[in-house]
Structure formats: C-alpha cells, structure tokens
Amino acid sequence: MKQILLLSIYFFSMNAFSATAVPALAVPTDTEVKKTYLEDIFIWRMSDELKLSTHDERQFTDIQKNLNKKKSELNKQIQEITLQIAEEGKKSANKLDATLVKYRKLLTQYNQLSTNEFDSIKKLLGAKKFAQYLNIKSELNNKVKSLLVGEKDKKESVPSNLPPPKIIIEKNEIN
Is residue 136 a part of any domain in this protein? Predict the structure, then answer.
C-alpha cells in the first residue's frame, strides 16, 4: 500500500498523467478521478508534513491545482504537436520549421511553470518551509523512482508463462 501511495504521489508531482479536455457536463473518466485523487493525496501529505495552517493549505491547494491544470494542458499540446512534427517531417520543410517553433514555445511555457511553482510556493511558505517542501518532494521522487526501478527489475526477471516441462522417463531394458 505504501508503494502504491508513493507511486501515486510521484505520478502526480511529475504530472505523468495528463488530463484530457472534458466538456463541463461530461462524467469524469477514471483517469480524471485518479488524477484528482493523486492531487489530493499530494496536497494532504505536504500540508501534513509542513504543518500548514488552514489558510496556507487553501492557498497551497489552489497553487498546486492551477499549476497541475496548466501542466496537463501544455503536456497535451506538446503531445499533439509531437505527432504533427512526425507527420510534417515526412512532407514539407517549411511547415516543419513552423511547427518546431511552436514546439519550442510550448516547451518554454512548460518549463516556465517550474519557475512559477518555485516563486509562488516560496512566497507562500517562506524560505525554511520551502526548503522542507523541496526536500520532501525530492525524497518522494527518489523513493518512487527506486520502487519503479525495483518493479522493472522484477518484471524482467519473471519468466513468461511457459508450458510445464515434459518429463521423459528412460527405461533400461535388460536383454
């Protein structure tokens, strides 16, 4: 259970899951429910570890949810433009250059979100708590990465489903 919690927090914090745009009246998908759940776990964990006041927790929640929403949107756009690059790479060089400029702009915006996170959370928490925040986030990332590497090794070492071996019994016949 602890591994699942750490994996969940890691994916949330790294935005491994990207949300898809959903009409306002649509029923949330399983991915969206999981994403919201992961956001809530991460926020709760940080709030608990940093001992945030109710007011600070509310602001922290707003900052995290807004940043994650923007990251998800930009990640989706980056994925879409990556597909365009693959298609246009086979065709026109002019269109490809324009698409690469758009791609670079999206990457710059995505990377700017990390700076925005740094600035807004440091402003909210102050230097000492912000240092704790970075330390906790780093520890969570390292733990989850080690779990992922461990699971990858386990998956590689597990043999595939092979049929049971055939047993051949040799009989010595005396003539």
Answer: yes
